[in-house]
Specification:
The complex is a heterodimer of chains A (121) and B (835). Chain A is 13% helix and 50% strand. Chain A is built from two helices and six strands, in the order ββββββαα. A three-stranded antiparallel sheet of chain A has the order 1-6-3, with no helix packed on it. Chain A is extended. Chain B is built from 29 helices and 19 strands. In chain B, the strands form four sheets. In chain B, strands 1, 2, 3, 11, 15, 16, 17, 18 and 19 form a nine-stranded mixed sheet that branches. A four-stranded parallel sheet of chain B has the order 5-4-9-10, covered by helices on one side. Chain B is elongated and about 105 Å long. In chain B, 51% of the residues are buried. The C terminus of chain B is likely disordered. The chains are: A mainly beta (121), B alpha/beta (835). At the A-B interface, strand 2 of A face helix 5 and helix 29 of B.
Chain lengths: 121, 835
């Protein structure tokens, strides 16, 4: 078991200040069989006038933010602490090849994975 | 087949093409199998027989005129609507048959709604195998990114259109569902307005059902959905969009604001329209764009600029969309192959309307069938139809390539076939001939549920071809039943004529204000370039050497032309003249200026008078500027310049006279004054910034360019001297050609804009500062030094200060009125002026 401290910084520098901007961020790790998120935070500078967190269609923790003041630089810092659990070797070892799994998901609309088994555009 | 003997001979003449029909001819709307006129057509055909070929020609001309007239009023491109000349001979449908049909149309709308609720919700159709998963999950219009646990706050569909046809056997078939972004109602209404006037006699005698009651109810529903005082807007893809006419027409009819994606902004889960009066909350949006084109944040590859995060406002429930985002997934033919089983499962009904043959090509058996009988099928996008520009052509010459492509991406494609169709009389070469036809019908929600507009837009089609895009066409008439009271519904056009703006007030969209501002600036830029060219060419020809020296000419031209160090002397002058008159890349050259001016004019056209537009049109479409005479052909070039100056003067004159002094006029005026101030300042820098040797020709050039030589002479009766010239052109507020006069105009225009309150806003403070600085300047000091050749320091400082303020002002105007970077007015009504 190990703990990872992750810091992810995105920085935009505009040639001339942006008056207004809207952003959609997916920067928070997901909980799952192989990991647990102990702590996660998202900071945007300058401070957004409006920030909405929600779960998107794929189950990601997404965040939409609006910065409504002139800014030459925008910096997004995502910090998280993740605990890695023992890898689920058994599950993976027992699984069929992905092509077979995808074909099965395409054929069975009831499977939760079905919507994701088709090509997107 | 012969026509019955008892038929009126005049009518029999007109129906002559019918006599050539085969015995097994398809069902015809007007004539029965025995050739007798069907009862519900008697009124229209009797009238046509009486009118005869000549009488009908007059009706055709009148119809065309009425159509063009409505086109002129609503289409900013100014081009004649291409369908204006389309066949207008109405199609009459028997009232009780129409009622059954209307039930079928409404049933179909209910089915699609139920299916949308299912595919974005419990997915019973998919889980039970009634719809193949690939049809939904493999469909690029299935808005996975939208999927939320709860249904949209409003209904899935508010408006629904379909293409409908009668088969040769007399049974109706559904050709396609237009359920994503319908809003073709404008065509229906405009078509009816034209046909009810040009065919007034049979229209009235036939007691044709009116559309008005249906649209009254539609509007009542929409207004209720928007809530008390809720703003309603219709979103169009813009003037170049094929459906713009219908959008503009229908928006006017409903009293909704006509907007484009860039007019929308979403803040904190609320949608707003950007107006010069600040951000105005929007309650209901009728969308004329496909859903994937609406949200630049969530679907960045497809969205038009503007309106990012629209889906967040839709999700919050504070913005209602008609139709809801995600509806495109089941548009066109997507549900067609499975409609019957879906209807049984979801609404527990048998479908009244059959579907035209349609195969979903995600199914391998369907792909094989299509490859086996290619002449029978057309391959079209399953949810978008044949006309979307992003649907790649699948009519590959190479059959194997087509088969491979379908195997790879068959999920997205459908094979459709039009069955053999019934015919209706079409006016052709002075007679009525039977032709296959189809129609678009229109349904919408009303407080009492789904309602179908009694009528439609019909057109002749070629067998096997996809239906033409919606436009003007044959009006579909449904007579009142015999036992029905003829309702005296309010007439359609009276509604249009009246001021019907209760939902939008006088909002001036920020985008339009921006266009008007730049239209004003562009007109002054063009005028300046023309004046500069005129003066330079005249001086090149002038006899007086000291007036025509290359140094002065270059300075005059550089008020507009980018300096070119490589060319000096007269060569440089000729080069600058050539660039300003013909170079496509010269920023203030005529080609680029006219191009931009035309664009801004077209966008602002709904706000200009017809006369203003015409003078602008004359100027910007002048062929002379496409290949202007070379600088050598001075006389021809001067004539072209004079013509253009006249058009510009006419444009300025008509806008000053015809535009009431509202905000539209103020933004145009503001643009003009800002640009003039900049130009006057540049001219002063170039021509009076240094004390020339001698000074007079420079000052004379400056006065001439400012059109102020006469004013100067009457006042000073001397050869030009620096201090009086500076007085006249910089600080004399009574001279409209002075810098201070233009700055004062800016200040006055700003004072009358909507945000002007008791305290000065940032843009007002900037303007006042610039004005005061120039007002306080002393001409004698600005004219210093007295020695020849010296730089005029004080003047240079004043001008650079003014220029900086004007740039700041332009930015601030953008922030305050066009871009709306500050908080929505609703949230910060009192805080806006604090900065």
């Amino acid at each position: 078991m190990s703990r990872l401290h992750i810091q992810h910084v995105t920085r935009y520098a505009h040639a001339s200040p942006a008056a207004f901007s809207q952003h959609l961020m997916r920067l928070t790790p997901l909980d799952g069989p192989s990991q647990r998120v102990l702590d996660a935070s998202l900071e945007v500078a300058p401070k957004p006038d409006d920030m909405e967190r929600f779960e998107d269609a794929f189950g990601n923790a997404a965040c939409a933010a609006t910065v409504a003041q002139p800014h030459g630089v925008l910096e997004i810092t995502a910090t998280s602490m993740v605990e890695r659990l023992r890898a689920p070797d058994l599950m993976q070892a027992a699984s069929s090849p992905w092509e077979t799994v995808a074909a099965a998901a395409r054929a069975q609309a009831g499977l939760p994975a079905a919507p994701f088994a088709f090509p997107t555009r | 087949m012969t026509l019955p003997a008892e038929l009126d001979p005049a009518l029999a003449d007109l129906l002559a093409p019918y006599a050539a029909r085969e015995a097994d001819a398809p069902y015809d709307e007007a004539l029965g199998p025995d050739g007798a006129v069907r009862a519900h057509w008697a009124n229209l055909l009797d009238w046509t027989g009486r009118a005869g070929t000549a009488g009908y020609a007059a009706v055709t001309a009148e119809t065309r005129r009425l159509r063009i007239e409505s086109g002129v009023a609503f289409d900013p491109s100014g081009d004649e609507i291409s369908s204006a000349g389309a066949d207008a001979f109405p199609v009459v449908i028997e009232p009780s048959e129409w009622e059954r049909l209307a039930e079928g149309i409404a049933q179909r709308a209910r089915l699609i709604e139920a299916a949308l609720a299912d595919i974005y919700g419990p997915r019973a159709l998919l889980r039970e195998g009634l719809l193949p998963p690939g049809l939904i999950y493999g469909n690029p219009d299935f808005a996975q990114w939208l999927r939320t646990p709860q249904a949209p706050p409003g209904p899935w569909l508010t408006l629904y259109e379909m293409d409908l046809a009668r088969g040769a056997d007399g049974r109706w078939v559904a050709i396609s569902d237009r359920s994503d972004a319908p809003l073709g109602d404008g065509w229906l209404i405009a078509n009816r307005v034209a046909s009810s006037q040009s065919f007034a006699e049979p229209f009235l005698a036939g007691r044709i059902r009116r559309l008005a009651a249906h649209y009254e109810d539609t509007q009542a529903y929409l207004e209720e959905a928007a809530g008390p005082d809720g703003r309603m807007a219709l979103l169009s893809g813009g003037a170049r969009h094929g459906r713009y006419f219908s959008h503009a027409y229908f928006a006017r009819y409903l009293g909704a604001a006509l907007i484009e994606p860039a007019d929308l902004t979403v803040r904190g889960g609320d949608a707003f329209v950007k107006t010069i009066d600040g951000l105005q909350p929007l309650a209901l949006l009728l969308r004329g764009e496909r859903d994937r084109k609406l949200d630049a944040l969530f679907a960045p590859d497809h969205a038009a600029p503007g309106a990012p995060a629209l889906s967040l406002a839709a999700r919050s429930g504070r913005l209602k969309l008609a139709n809801a985002l995600g509806a495109s997934a089941l548009a066109y033919r997507a549900i067609a192959p499975y409609a019957r089983q879906a209807a049984r499962r979801l609404i527990g009904e048998e479908l009244f309307l059959d579907d035209a043959p349609c195969l979903w090509l995600g199914d391998p058996a369907a792909r094989e069938q299509v490859m086996d009988e290619p002449e029978f099928w057309r391959v079209e996008h399953v949810s978008r139809g044949p006309l979307e520009p992003d649907a790649p052509s699948l009519y590959a010459k190479d059959r194997d390539a087509l088969a491979r492509r379908l195997a790879r991406e068959g999920d997205r494609w459908a094979a459709v076939a039009t069955p053999r169709l019934a015919t209706a009389p079409v006016w052709k070469d002075g007679a009525l001939a039977p032709r296959p036809w189809i129609m678009r019908v229109f349904a919408s929600r009303t407080p009492e549920g789904w309602s179908v507009a009694p009528g439609g837009v019909a057109s002749a089609v070629e067998q096997g071809r996809a239906p033409p895009p919606l436009g003007f066409g044959k009006d579909v008439w449904v007579p009142a039943r015999n036992d029905e009271e003829a309702k005296s519904a309010p007439s359609l056009d009276r509604r249009l004529a009246g001021a019907h703006l209760r939902r939008t007030g006088g909002d001036l969209l920020s985008r339009v204000a921006d266009d008007l501002f730049w239209l004003g600036r562009g007109a002054v830029r063009a005028e300046t370039t023309l004046r500069v060219l005129h003066l330079a060419i005249e001086r090149m020809l002038s006899a007086r050497d000291e007036d025509g020296g290359p140094e002065i000419l270059a300075a005059i031209l550089e008020i507009q032309a980018t300096p070119n160090e490589a060319r000096t002397g007269m060569a440089g002058v000729r080069d600058a003249v050539a660039r300003l008159s013909a170079d496509l890349h010269e920023p203030l050259g005529m080609p680029m200026l006219l191009n931009r001016l035309r664009g801004a004019g077209q966008r602002a056209r709904p706000y200009l008078s017809e006369e203003s537009w015409r003078s602008l049109d004359r100027l910007t479409s002048d062929r002379g500027w496409r290949r202007p005479p070379p600088a050598g052909a001075a006389a021809a070039l001067l004539r072209l310049i004079d013509d253009s100056l006249m058009s510009l003067a006419a444009f300025a004159g008509t806008t000053a006279e015809n535009l009431t002094r509202n905000h539209v006029w103020r933004f145009l005026e503001l643009g003009r004054s800002v640009e003039r101030s900049l130009v006057f300042s540049r001219a002063a820098e170039r021509l009076a910034g240094r004390r020339g040797e001698p000074d007079e020709p420079w000052l004379r050039a400056w006065l001439t360019l400012a059109d102020s030589r006469t004013a100067y002479r009457t006042r000073y009766l001397t050869v030009p001297a620096a201090a009086p010239a500076i007085d006249l052109l910089i600080v004399d507020e009574n001279n409209p050609r002075s810098l201070v006069h233009q700055l004062a105009r800016i200040e006055r225009a700003l004072d009358r804009l909507p945000s002007a309150g008791p305290r000065r806003g940032p843009e007002q403070r900037i303007a006042l500062r610039a004005l005061t600085e120039v007002r306080l300047a002393e001409p004698e000091r600005l004219a210093e030094p007295v020695e020849t050749g010296g730089e005029r320091q004080a003047l240079a400082e004043l001008l650079s200060c003014t220029n900086a303020r004007l740039a700041e002002l332009s930015d601030q105007l953008g922030r305050s009125y066009f871009a709306h970077t500050e908080a929505p007015s609703r949230l910060a009504a009192s805080g806006r002026r604090e900065a």
